[in-house]
Amino acid sequence: MARPGSALALICCSAFLWGCGLKTPVVPPDAAAPDRIRDLSAIQDETGITLRWSAPVRSRSGEKLPAPANDFRIMRAESSPGGFCPGCPLRFTEAARVRTGPQASPSWRDPDLAYGRIYSYQVIAENGPFNRSLPSNRADAAWDAPPPAPAPPELSAGDHMVTVRIEAEAGYGFELEKRTGAGFAVILRHPAPGRAEYTDREPANGEEAAYRLRLLKPAGASGLFVRGPASKTVAATPRDLTPPPAVTGLTAVETAEGINLFWTPVNAPDLAGYRIIRETTGGKSARIGETGSGASHFVDHAPPAGAQRWRYRVDAVDKAGNLAPGPWAEFERVE
User: Is there a single domain that holds both residue 107 and residue 208?
Assistant: First the structure.
């Protein structure tokens, strides 16, 4: 029969072994907590303020998280335009919590805004109840009665470019927006009232480019602006206005089949072909034929009867219809 002391020792030993068995490796806090959000933006329009940011995919220590963080705390501070200080510390309070899918691009729209106020935001990402990121970068936005919708900008299309002419209403600056694959993006910001002209050289010929305008109203002395509704969207399509190089080396030789024209081919990737022009005495000219882009020879099978002197010209034409007149080649018939 076992002694009571031996049984008690066995129980204590078992409890010790159970409590001190194998454990999972300790994860350092920085390896589990999400990295700080660095791209928070506060986008204000005539309907409110929307926050956008990227979900952290790495931890504070730089290791890849099993899944992007998808729990977020929205922190907000409020101030007046006169008391706003971009670099001063603010007292943030939690305004909302947002939970998204693991692959979502997080966003949040502030439903509680008052005219004449400045709102500052930060977002904290969470990856479980004890793993929090540091506060994000700060994003500021003003909220007030928005300016009116402006008239759309004036556009004129050129060769590989669109010129945009803008005249903002008195008292307002403006933003010019261009349509992209993801919506509209600001390409020009002009905070002071006045006129402006912008040349967009990104569109390719034949590619439509669309633009719209918003007015900006200063939010006191804060340096921030209230954006108004967008104007009507207008579009323009650049077109090829540059002619190809002109033909060189044109000569005219008479043979039994007619007047043979020879020239040096034009080197242009968009060349469509050549037009052959004949001018007789008195300056009367007419197109007598056309050739493809690979030609360098043409025969005038029906030259003017009885005439002793006339001349030819070969014009290069590109696919956009731009024409480059070549030099005249004189022909004189010798009896």
Answer: no
* Same domain membership, residue 161 and residue 183: yes
pTM: 0.71
Alpha carbon of 285 to those of 7, 233, 313: distances in Å? 125, 47, 10
Q: CB-based burial of residue 136 (10 Å sphere; 0-12 exposed, 13-18 middle, 19+ buried)?
A: buried
In DSSP terms, 45 is beta-bridged to: 48
User: 10 Å Cβ neighbour count for 41?
Assistant: 13
Find the angle CA(28)-CA(31)-CA(36) to the nearest 5 degrees.
130
* Per-residue model confidence as pLDDT tens digits over 119-138: 999 999 998 778 999 999 99
**Domain contains 265:** yes
Distance CA 96, CA 109 (A): 10
The whole-number pLDDT of residue 67 equals 86
Angstrom distance (rounded) from CA 199 to CA 158: 10
Q: E strands, 256-308, where?
A: 258-264, 271-280, 284-292, 297-300
